[in-house]
């Protein structure tokens, strides 16, 4: 296939196989595969060259895989402190049972309302619960994760304001920055940063100067910050964005919203979040749930990515549910769709709805207060043991950031003692999380280990 051969209007790269192979030094795909795949795994006429036939019997394959899996170390969730957007949280057995039912587990996108009322109602309940939690009027039926939800929010702001730049805090998690760069690369949108203050909160003076001079389509505002700092500047930051014709995009931790006023109630245009803390296991980083909400505004609503479930009345006057405003979707608008979310994270959205229903208003408040208490306990203990906290005098929620020498070797040493101590952000900067699963004794064990390796005791 030569360059410039258009085989399909929506698959523009099909005609570039020859050029790609030539660049890699191959003439055909088989050569590439033979170079990339170990010889022992190559198949010739359905038979592995290097393995006797009995080794490929199902029971032997299962035995081999199990023996390899046993080499993976197992850690108690209470000894997992690796912080960031994904942290260990309690997942109720009722949540796992409900989402394991075939009606939810194997359901595809509910295009046909006449046969999908159960799934549609569950997603409608999710939207309603999250709307109340975020303080906004509209929440879609789920995105892939927090990072891609943020990327979609940035693209949405650009579509509405038509200015080719987005402003983000320098404290934003490195992985979120990487996803944003990927999302904004194609549309050629500049990603700009504003500074963090001495206490880890957003520097409002720099935010105001950057929004006024650079004129971005949107400003990303965190609560708490990716470094865990809990601040009271969100309302003022939203006002600064609005005064300079930028959309305010709030990136939040859902569980903190039981302790502070939701961003939607103080004027945020778009609110996004990672929903893993709402009843989802860590699962090695996936699958996750991206939460995406907007205030009631026709322009925002028309540009909202993802799917919306609405409530209506059927021909007999009975209440029913269906997907609404589907003109945003790729099965109708194709390349003009506001997103290509496809089957997305509906199962995880339903899990979040079940989790919130089990907690209730009082349970959510208790859980949030408990996480806050655990975090403050850890902060106090880390200060006492001389841990090099980045923001020792600031309030934190769930995540705490600090510096440590030789973080990779410290990490491996902790793992050998049954502790996953932190996630490495950059250089010597690391982040640990503290949730409802961490008792004081667990936190004591982590801090004792850290103070020992740092020579604090």
Automatic annotation (TrEMBL):
Top-level taxon: Archaea
EC id: 1.4.4.2
Record key words, sorted: Oxidoreductase
InterPro entries attached to this UniProt entry: GcvPA, GDC-P_N, PyrdxlP-dep_Trfase, PyrdxlP-dep_Trfase_major, PyrdxlP-dep_Trfase_small
An example molecular function term from Gene Ontology annotations: glycine dehydrogenase (decarboxylating) activity
Glycine cleavage system P-protein N-terminal domain mapped to chain residues: 18-449
SUPFAM superfamilies in UniProt: PLP-dependent transferases
Oxidoreductase is among the record's keywords: yes
A Pfam family this chain is assigned to: GDC-P
Record-level GO BP terms: nucleoside metabolic process
Name by which UniProt lists this protein: Aminomethyl-transferring glycine dehydrogenase subunit GcvPA
